[in-house]
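Service request form, structural biology core

Requester: graduate student, group of Dr. S.
Request type: structure prediction, single chain
Budget code: on file
Notes: please return the result as structure tokens.

Sequence provided:
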Amino acid sequence: MQKPISPRAHGVLDYATVAVTAAAPRLLDFPAPAARLAYALAGSYLGLSLLTDYPLAARRAIPFPAHGAAEGAIGLALPALPHALGFADHRPARNFFIALTAVTAVVAALTDWR
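Core staff response, request fulfilled:
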């Protein structure tokens, strides 16, 4: 089955994810642990995106399938982090990370990693 998200489109989505994840703490008034997590994720996503071997990279050092594996690992951890970091009772922050998990899973499933 041909997947609809090309490496270029995936790059656009990656940089959009960086922007949204970096903006979320202020827009949704995250508590400090959630804000630190969001900023760390935004920085990590940015670094991964800038170094991935796809059209929007600054330097093509990470193979695109390895980028997908990294996103998969992050996606698996995301739902547990609100509980692990003590902000699960803050609904906007918790729901943001749950939504980020869902978006990550859908984008990964629809991306052509070849």
